[in-house]
Design a protein that fits this description.
20% of the residues are buried. The protein has one domain: 2-Layer Sandwich (Double Stranded RNA Binding Domain), CATH 3.30.160. With 89 residues, it is of the alpha+beta class. Strands 1, 2, 3, 4 and 5 form a five-stranded antiparallel β-sheet that branches.
């Protein structure tokens, strides 16, 4: 089963375990675009009793959704390191 199938199986919700990093949950979320996939990730964190969500989309293109996941996680970690909780506004 491809990573894309795992991420966007039957109901469109991720079936894979998130990557945990500094209290954040990172879900790779490739975005289909002309000629491939854009780098995307969903970053979540529980703050003050609410689940905060940030959708990360980058212009980086990949040939397949399976290629995106490792780069999406690396980019999400970089954004978390730079912005921390400010990521959620």
């Amino acid at each position: 089963m491809s990573l894309f199938s795992k991420l966007f199986g039957g109901k469109g919700t991720p079936e894979v375990e998130p990557e945990l990093y500094k209290g954040f949950r990172i879900y790779p979320a490739p975005q289909q675009a002309d000629g491939g996939y854009l780098l995307g990730a969903r970053i979540e964190k529980d703050l003050d009793g609410d689940t905060k969500v940030h959708h990360l989309i980058r212009a980086d293109r990949f040939q397949s959704a399976d290629e995106v996941a490792p780069y999406a996680i690396l980019k999400a970690k970089q954004v978390i390191d730079e912005q921390g909780d400010r990521l959620f506004g």
